[in-house]
Amino acid sequence: MSGFFKKALGLFVEIEESKDGSSERKQELNPTPSLKNTGANNTPIPTGSKLNEADIEKFEKHFDKLFEQANLPGPDYYEFCKMSETLEAHISDEKARMAATFASLSIQGLTKQKLLEAAEHYKQIVLKDKQAFEGAIDKKAEADLESRKSNVSALEKRIQDNAELIKKLTAEITDAQQKIATLKQEISVEEQRLIVNKSGYNIACEAMLTKISTDIQKIQTNL
């Protein structure tokens, strides 16, 4: 079913052959108006979706296994697709190839009604698998992403709190610097005043001491 998967993938992503013969996938979406950005059951395909070779191989194996496990008894849509892929190298015209495939399998009991019913059967299998896959993704997202989102919120809150704290501390530092400048000015003025007062006091004190000493001498001499 490898060719079937890549053909289905080709509805949304262009795949081209490289020089060495291996398949390479263009990153651009197929511009087909009726299918661009729309998958099975009208599921939107995100613009710019990318699948590398590892992704293609992984999903290819997944759907191969899914189809094999769901394969109905006798020839049906599964065998129809496989045989059609085999004939593609010999019959390039799709309509002719489908007719040849159906004619070959009809000998084994395949009818158009059975083919359509089987195709619907596999479609429901894929839709069920899609639902299970999305449920698993949602569960993993809840388990893995929510904790990270919670950490992001906590860190953002911490950044906001720290930013407000920095703002508050910056204002306090600015206020303190202004007060320091004022206090230094007051200190300078006060020191100068004290120096002047001390100098004046010393002069007055020396004058008083000199007067008293002079008066003592006068008293001793004159009295």
Structural account:
The protein is mainly α and 223 residues long. The protein has a domain at 2-151. It contains five helices and two strands; from the N terminus they run αββαααα. A two-stranded antiparallel sheet has the order 1-2. The longest helix has 111 residues, at 112-222. The protein starts with a helix and ends with a helix. 5% of the residues are buried.
Helix/strand layout:
Layout (H helix, E strand, L loop, with lengths): L1 H8 L3 E5 L5 E7 L23 H18 L6 H11 L6 H13 L5 H111 L1
Antiparallel strand pairs: 1-2
Helix pairs in contact: 2-5, 3-4
Total of helices:
5
Helix-strand sequence: HEEHHHH
Shape type: rod-shaped
Unreliable stretches covering 5 or more consecutive residues: 14-48
Q: Approximately what portion of the residues adopt beta-strand conformation?
A: 5-15%
CA radius of gyration is 47 Å
User: N- to C-terminal separation?
Assistant: 144 Å
The profile of the biggest β sheet is: 2 strands, antiparallel
The helix content, as a percent range, equals over 70%
Which strand order spans the largest sheet, edge to edge or round the barrel? 1-2
Q: Which structural class do the helices and strands define?
A: mainly alpha
Provide a quick synopsis of the model.
With 223 residues, the chain is mainly alpha-helical. It has 5 helices and 2 strands, in the order H-E-E-H-H-H-H.
